[in-house]
Amino acid sequence: MFSNRYIFIYTTILVVAVAVILSLTATLLQPMQNRNEEVAKMQEILKAAGQTVAPQEAIEAYNNEITAEWMVNRKGEIRAGYVNRAGNWKPMADMPENRRAFDCSLKTELEQAARYEENPATEDGLFPVFVCRDSARYIVPLQGKGLWGPIWGYLALEKDFNTVSGATFGHKGETPGLGAEIAAENFQKQFAGKKIFDTQGKFTSITVQKGGAEKYQGDISHAVDAISGGTITSGGVTAMLADCLAYYRAFFEKMQRAALDTADEVRADTVNLQTK
Amino acid sequence: MSQEKERLENKGGGWKEWFSAKNMKLLTRPFGADNPITVQVLGICSALAVTAKMQPALVMAISVVVVTGFANLIISLLRNTIPPRIRIIVQLTVIATLVILVDQTLKAVAYEVSRQLSVFVGLIITNCIVMGRLEAFAMANKPWPSFLDGVGNGAGYGLILIIVAFIREFFGSGTVFGYKVIPPSFYEAGYTDNGLFILPPMALIVLGVIIWIHRSMNRNLIEK
To answer: End-to-end alpha-carbon separation of chain A, Å?
Structure first.
């Protein structure tokens, strides 16, 4: 009934029509989708910093709360930076590789860092740090693997670069009710007050402990409860924290020393004043 | 003047015909005697995957209604031009296009929900109900009845999804649409949420119980 010729023409027209419709919608919806993604990213960063904001307020709140965006390398040096001047982001002076931390994807940077470890001739990745108002908190992004796909998150540290003040996690497609619970408030609020360095100053990261934080071998301030039924996702969060924070270790230690030095100076000053 | 009146009456009659008892049956049968999940046992995979919580189940239900409705409509419009040898490919192309449109639209206007549903919207393509209705109904019927049939089947599927999701969320997490409905005093008295309800096997058991109840209420469905 239908000739081969007809079938070929029919499929060609169908495919072209579908392609046109899909690319048209994709192009039309792209700006809205990009904006949604940016807003969601801002919301996550702010949530790690302890602020829950509605999507329509996110941009304003972000420009209000975050004062600087840095990119640090694994030696702990700040290699790129932007400063917030009343909502306008201006590049910092004397930065060798300047770009905005907000626009960079940690996934790409981690891949680059992995390539660098194999072949030191290539360029190393840089890792974003978001600085909150009054330098009260520092937020770092996280990126790792869950059971079904990527998981990510943001970890906010107090200015001692050790105590966690808040954390948020997201996922692409973890099982609803199980692994997906890492995105739930009850899981995330456990992280507040946990520490990533032990009392000797050794980097320990935070472990998501199966069976409950009290089963963790060691100081409980380095462990949180895992999700029952979400063992692989929980393990993914542990690995993500350890792997990503390891790149920031030098930076954190440097900042801790710097804080100690200033504290020493202040103490020395007061001693001087008292002796006078 | 009389002609005008006649025309209007005819038009009115036309509209009545659109929603005739026969057509409405297409819309309502999938809720009962012809339910795609409990009677035809189609679309089980997604019924297990998205029913741990109410909200994703509801959005999934709406998305499936849109896809089945419009896929049936489009295929029915094209039905006389589709060469039988490639009809499955044509059907799949239409379904896939609609699903991508729904997915992209959700990402643009309901970003939060689309993140919760993640891959499952894309998996509507593999939902047997959509293609089943195209093969069984839209290829042989006019566009309007096909559209009703699609919407009815999508909604019949969605109804079961929401019932299962309600049971699982209520017993598994003690919430409905994310709101705590079991009072804290129950938990103090020793009540705990049943974690088994969150796991996929429980969806299968709940579904089985629903099919059992449905069949014992409607004896015609029981095979001899």
So the answer is: 108
